[in-house]
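Sharing a chain and its predicted structure for anyone who wants a worked example. Both blocks are below, sequence first, tokens second.
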Amino acid sequence: MRGVALAVALAGCLGGGGTASGPTDATVLFAVVDQNLACNTNGQGAHDSYLGGVAIGSTLAFIATASDAFGCGNDAASQSLLEVSLAGGDPGTSLGSIGPQPPQEAHVAAVGDTPVFAFAMANGGELQGQIGSAAAFGIQPPTGGMLYAADAVGDGSGAWIASWGGFAMMQGGFDDPGYPYDQQIFQPTGTASGGTLLRVGVDGTAQAVASLPANQSWACATMPDCLASDGSGGVLAIASETSQPGQGTLLALPAGATAFTAIEALTTLADGGPMGFASDGAHAAWVLADEPNGGQPHCVVVARDLAAGSDTQLLESTAFSCAGAAVDATGAYVAITTYGHGDQGNVIDGLGIGRVEFATGAFESIATGLSGEGVGARRLYVVGDTIYVVDPHVLAAIPVAALAGQHAFAP
């Protein structure tokens, strides 16, 4: 039975060590009810809601709530876009239905407090979306077939949207409580091809800017975000080899450029690959973790000083796994995870949050209390002095200061 704890508290003595910790002043900003409804013998089930795309704006969060026949392989049957105040105490305001048809989730970004979303039409092959109140945009596939939204990230003047050609690499998205649906996520599927980067302006105009090589695809199938703003009008991305999804490459597209530059090939794991990526313009950080379906715990966190062009491996642990990534001026943050067994096989269970300092490599960690089968923190974003933690059913805010001196997990 899946469950979620809405009272977020720090637990103690997890992951092989640490001291007991008291409760935090964490705030649940938004939650959906997990009904845990099963399929019937015909493979049809009642729809269960979860948090799909999430974007953190200046004072608002934007959330695409998705409905999924959990355990039936019917992902993202319907979606709605909501806005929620980051100050708390807001039940959420619906901004309307945004599609799409199964099996793809919509992806959401924020330009200040303006939402951007994109999704694929089921029958027409077109990728559609909208920024704020501007006219909706539509992008046709360049060579026929389909375009699917893979990720979206905003900056001061618009948003970048990564789109896949072909079909989705996974039966369900990373945000789904049932992910990875008992699939080997770092095995080639042969169903995703290439990738196109789109630019959407604040006036709603959208155009294709650059494409990935034919042997690469966005690494978004194995982690929550594969795009990040470079802080100077361009974008950073992680792509993976279509034949080797565990092999990632860091790419850069500076402002005004029309072709990606390969920065470096990421370190590889024997049974794993990239599961998190973030940048604040000064540093980029990525997370490598083991295969969720039967792999052994393994977490590697690497940071790159973008100005110096140098990498530092901040953390390697076989005591836990990890997913998602966030950065601020002083360090990198990850969601600490493990793998449980759910309705569709192995699923990601979020346990807590870890932070590694760039300068010293010091590691601090807390257990969030967002726990249960297929739930718990697996995405996170840091804005100012707040960590926004995303569980499949909960968006919560935790002060960065809550990690100071805490060691709930030993690496």
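Comments welcome. Residues 1-23, 39-47 have pLDDT under 50 and may be disordered.
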